[in-house]
C-alpha cells in the first residue's frame, strides 16, 4: 500500500511507512505523529522529538540515542523481547508517556528491569505479536489470525502495521482479525485507525478491498457519523489518488445523505464517483 503523508498546520502525519533499517534519521520534527509504521532498527539519533506521538508502531532495534524526548508519547507500540531492544541510551527524556505498549528497552532500573517494559500484554498476545515480526509470510499470516482469535483489543493498532504488509493474504487476514477485535475503543478516541483502514478500499488486490469494505460497512452501520468524520478529515487537504478512491468507495458503501453533499461538490470526488 502506498504511504500516506499529510501536512497540516506545520504538523506532519506519517502513516503506514516502512522505515525499517533506515540508517539516516528521517526529518521528523516536534509535534509530528507516526502511526502504524515499521520503525525496526530505524535511527532517530539526535532528533528533537518533543511532543511527537508514536501510535501502533514496531520499535525493535529503533535507536533514540541523544534524541530529545520531551513529552513524547508511545501509544500501543511494540518491541518484542526476542529481538533487539529499543535503544534509549543517552536519550534526553522528560515526561515520556508510554501507554498500552510493550517496549523492551536498553534502559534499566535498580532491579535490572527495562524501564519502558510495559508487561500488561498477556503472554499469549506477546507471543503472537512476536511471530508477526517474522520474515516468513506464513508465520505473519498465522500471527494476525491468532491475534484476532485472542480477542484482546490492545493488538488492534499493531495490526494496523500489517495493513501495509507486502503479502495480500496477510493484509486480508489483518482485516479479519480487526473484525473480531471490533476496535471501537480506538476509533472513538482517535480516527487514525479508521482513516488508515479506509485507504485499503483502494488496495491493489480485490480480496483485500473486499475484506476492507466488509469491516468498514459493519463499523459504519454502528456509527455513520464516525465514517463521515473520517472522510471529512481526509478531504480537508488535496487527496492522493489512493485516498480519492478510498473516499469514493466509502461514500458508495453507504446511503448518500445530506452530510455528504459538501464533499460531493469537490471536482476530484465527482471524477471518482462519475458524477456529472
Task: Provide tags for this entry.
276 residues, alpha/beta, Leucine-rich Repeat Variant, six-stranded mixed sheet, two-stranded parallel sheet, 10 helices, disordered N terminus, disordered C terminus
Q: Can you offer a commentary on this structure?
A:
With 276 residues, this protein is α/β, with parallel strands linked by helices. The protein has a domain at 123-273: Alpha Horseshoe (Leucine-rich Repeat Variant). It has ten helices and eight strands. The protein has a six-stranded mixed beta sheet with strand order 1-2-3-4-6-8.
Short description:
With 276 residues, the protein is α/β, with parallel strands linked by helices. The protein has helices at residues 123-131, 137-150, 156-162, 168-181, 184-189, 192-199, 206-222, 224-234, 241-253, 267-273, and strands at 4-8, 11-15, 33-35, 53-55, 68-70, 73-75, 92-94, 97-99.
Percent in helix: 25-40%
What would you call the shape? globular
| Percent of sequence in beta strands | 5-15%
Helix count from the secondary structure assignment: 10
Q: Strand order within the widest sheet?
A: 1-2-3-4-6-8
Number of strands: 8
Structural class: alpha/beta
On the 0 to 100 scale, the average pLDDT is 80
Question: Any idea what the radius of gyration is?
Answer: 19 Å
Unreliable runs, pLDDT <50, ≥5 residues? 1-9, 272-276
**Class of one domain, according to the CATH hierarchy?**
Mainly Alpha
Q: Would you give the CATH topology of one domain?
A: Leucine-rich Repeat Variant
- Termini distance? 30 Å
Taken in chain order, the helices and strands follow as EEEEEEEEHHHHHHHHHH
Largest sheet data:
6 strands, mixed
Overall CATH architecture of one domain? Alpha Horseshoe
CATH H-tier superfamily of one domain: Leucine-rich Repeat Variant
Amino acid at each position: 500500500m502506498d504511504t500516506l503523508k499529510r501536512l497540516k498546520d506545520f504538523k506532519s502525519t506519517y502513516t503506514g511507512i516502512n522505515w525499517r533499517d533506515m540508517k539516516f534519521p528521517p526529518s521528523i520534527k516536534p509535534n509530528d505523529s507516526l502511526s502504524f509504521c515499521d520503525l525496526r532498527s530505524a535511527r532517530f539519533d539526535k532528533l528533537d522529538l518533543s511532543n511527537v506521538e508514536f501510535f501502533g508502531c514496531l520499535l525493535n532495534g529503533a535507536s533514540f540515542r541523544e534524541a530529545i524526548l520531551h513529552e513524547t508519547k508511545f501509544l500501543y507500540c511494540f518491541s518484542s523481547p526476542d529481538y533487539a531492544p529499543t535503544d534509549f541510551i543517552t536519550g534526553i527524556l522528560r515526561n515520556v508517556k508510554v501507554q498500552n505498549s510493550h517496549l523492551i528497552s536498553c534502559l534499566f532500573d535498580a532491579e535490572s528491569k527495562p524501564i519502558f517494559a510495559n508487561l500488561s500484554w498477556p503472554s499469549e498476545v506477546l507471543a503472537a505479536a512476536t511471530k508477526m515480526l517474522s520474515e516468513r509470510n506464513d508465520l505473519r499470516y498465522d500471527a494476525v489470525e491468532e491475534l484476532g482469535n485472542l480477542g484482546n483489543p490492545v493488538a488492534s493498532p499493531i495490526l494496523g502495521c500489517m495493513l501495509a504488509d507486502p503479502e495480500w493474504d496477510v493484509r486480508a487476514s489483518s482485516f479479519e482479525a480487526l473484525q473480531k477485535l471490533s476496535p471501537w475503543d480506538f476509533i472513538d478516541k482517535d480516527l487514525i485507525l479508521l482513516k488508515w483502514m479506509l485507504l485499503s478500499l483502494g488496495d491493489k488486490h480485490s480480496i483485500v478491498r473486499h475484506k476492507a469494505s466488509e469491516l468498514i460497512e459493519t463499523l459504519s452501520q454502528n456509527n455513520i457519523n464516525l465514517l463521515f468524520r473520517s472522510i471529512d478529515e481526509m478531504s480537508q487537504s488535496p487527496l492522493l489518488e489512493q485516498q480519492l478512491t478510498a473516499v469514493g468507495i466509502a461514500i458508495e458503501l453507504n446511503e448518500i445523505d445530506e452530510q455528504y453533499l459538501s464533499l460531493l461538490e469537490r471536482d476530484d470526488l465527482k471524477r471518482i464517483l462519475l458524477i456529472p
